[in-house]
Every structure is written in C-alpha cells, then in structure tokens.
Amino acid sequence: MSAGDKCLQEGRYVALSGGVGGAKLSLGLANLLGDRLTIIVNTGDDFEHLGLYVSPDIDTTIYTLSDLVNPDTGWGRRDESWNFMAAIAQLGSPGWFRLGDSDLAMHVERTRRLRAGESLTAVTAHYAECFGIAAKVLPMSDDPVRTIVDTDLGRLAFQEYFVREQCRPRISAINFDGAVSARPCQIALAALAEPNLSGVIICPSNPYLSVDPILAVPGIKEALKACDAPVIAISPIIAGKAVKGPTAKIMEQLGRSADAVTVARHYAGLLSAFVLDKCDAGRAVDLMLPTLVTNTLMRSLDDKISLARACLDFCAELRKGAQR
Ligand code: FO1
C-alpha cells in the first residue's frame, strides 16, 4: 500500500470551512473520509433573526453533507416551500432573510436547545447525527463571535451586509466582535492536536469573511502552527475571479490584488503548501511554497471528490517529503 493510499484509508483530517464553497469541498472530503474528517465551521455569520438563532455556515455544511441542500442557491434546503415567509410578511415582518418552511425547523429547534442550556457544539453534533453525517461538524466556538463590517453605509452585521444589502456597500474594515474573549471549541483543538493527524485543509472559502473569523478565535491559529501534519489551503480565486460571492470585490476594496497568490500570502506563516487552479498555473512560481496545480472548480459531485482526493494525496506527498 502506498503512503497516499494508507493516508486515504487510515488518516484523520481537519477542514476549516465557511459556507457554500467550503461545504462543497467538505462534501468531497466526507465522501472519502467519513468519520475520519472533522470540519471546523465559521460561526461569525451567526445571528438572531425573528427571535431565532441562525447559524448559516453550519446549516449549509449540514445540508450539503446530507444531500439536502438547495443546488441552485447552495444554502437552504432543496424542494423548499415558503408559506411561513408569506404568512409573516403579511404581518409586516421584514422579509430580506428567507427562512424556508423545512429550514425553519433547524432554527426553532436550535434556539430551543440553546435556551435549555445545550452548547452550539452539542446541538450541531445532534443535527449531524439526525442527518446521518459521519464527519464531525463543529462550530469554531460556543461563544459568540460576530463578523461586523465597516462600510460606506456604516457598521453592518454580516447578514445585513451580505443578504440585506447584497454585498453592495464598500468595505473598509472587517471586525470579529467577541473573538478576543471567545474560547475555541475544545473538540476542534483536540482534533488539531491528534498525533495521527494526516492533514489540515483550509477550504476555498472567503479568506477574509469566512476563514479569518475561525483563525481569530484564540488558540486555533496556534494549534495550526503547532500541528505536525501539513496545512494546505485551496484558493477560492480562479483567474482573478471568485467562484461565488464577493471575495474578489472585497480584496480590491481592501487594497489587495484579487488573485490566488494574494490568498496564499494572506495565510503566511500557517501553510505548508497551497493549491491553485490550472488557470493560475503560471502564478505557482510566485509562491515560496510547494504548490499543487489542479482543477479547483467544483460543479459536480465528481469534481468535489476529485479535488478532495487531490488534496489528500498532496498531504500524503508533503508528509513523505517532511520525513526525508
Ligand atoms: N443567503 C441569501 O443570500 N439570502 C437569504 O435569504 C438567506 C437565508 C438563509 C437562511 C438560512 C441559512 O442557513 C442561510 C441563509 N442564507 C441566505 C445563506 C447565508 O446567509 C450566506 O450564504 C452565508 O452566511 C455566507 O456564508
């Protein structure tokens, strides 16, 4: 058995992920690894809406891994109905954040359990079990960390910026309120400290809005730096464009060039290696890191599994190189 095959069959991996883009690679990884995968998910997007605790990136991860996700939007549930939204709109409630009828159950039950004293980690583990997900899905922290953006419209909570304002305001700074005093999810830290960890994969999520909040939780960056396994990141930028969402636009607004190299440099000091798309092959030489150039666009399930397999093989290669 080759080292790569052995890692594929025995190794444990940790993924850091935001919402839609990250969940796609998480699905590929989950297909190959099952319960040997731990996914640490951004909760900086969480907020209270209509009195309910909504955790969008956890929801997206759970729905994607259980094949319930709406394939058109990448969030929410497939074959959803919208009677609740229509009924509440009639009562004058703001309708900018759409909660589908089946999706609603997720938020009502989460809110009930949190109010009864369960942690977000426990509720998320319960949901993963209910939906038959073998991988561990973990919030980055059980404490509130909230992504707040400074914009030309003033300070906006993440969902106000992202959904209500459709990412139109110009961002000048990104803050993670509460991060300084947040405690990291202990199961996440334990997964990163495991002696037989084979790799850590930073998914192709928005580095500034989705991965940075995870890295802002005290202890997580330190655990990444301390772990023996290779840490790799996949660029969410392909040929200067984000596959989905405002990553490229935000990079420009923050005065950075929107390309894969900038993403790799953003993670400076954390990475053993970087994965970039074939379209950006020419930029690999600009990085002072080992690189894997492959197809990173994930349209089909096969694409997701192929990219996941390439990442796992790459981790195995990096481990072999480190042993020499
Ligand atoms: N995204 C939207 O663009 N519009 C919505 O109305 C919306 C509702 C929504 C409800 C529950 C949920 O879990 C996610 C939802 N999202 C919606 C997605 C989400 O806000 C963003 O994709 C993430 O926060 C960014 O990762």
Task: Please provide a written account of the structure.
By secondary structure, the chain is α/β, with parallel strands linked by helices. The protein has a single domain, classed as CofD-like domains (Rossmann fold, 3-Layer(aba) Sandwich). α2 packs across α13 and α5 packs across α6. It is globular, with a radius of gyration of 19 Å. It starts with a helix and ends with a helix. The relative contact order is 0.16. The structure holds ligand FO1.
Q: Class in CATH?
A: Alpha Beta
Number of domains: 1
CATH level 3 topology: Rossmann fold
Annotated CATH architecture: 3-Layer(aba) Sandwich
Read across the widest sheet, the strand sequence of neighbours is 5-2-1-9-10-13-14
Give the percentage of residues in beta strands. Answer: 15-25%
* Helix proportion: 40-55%
Protein structure class: alpha/beta
- Helix segment tally: 13
List all distinct small molecules, including ions and cofactors, that are bound in this structure. ligand FO1
Order of helix and strand elements from N to C terminus: HEHEEEHHHHEEEHEHEHHEEEHHEEH
- Please identify the oligomeric state: single chain
Q: Summary?
A:
This protein has about 325 residues and is of the alpha/beta class. It has helices at about 5-10, 20-35, 55-65, 85-90, 100-115, 120-130, 160-165, 185-195, 205-215, 220-225, 245-255, 260-265, 300-324, and strands at about 10-15, 35-40, 45-50, 50-55, 135-140, 145-150, 155, 170-175, 195-200, 230-235, 235-240, 240, 275, 290-295. A 7-stranded parallel beta sheet has the order 5-2-1-9-10-13-14, with helices on both faces. The chain has a 3-stranded antiparallel beta sheet with strand order 7-6-8.
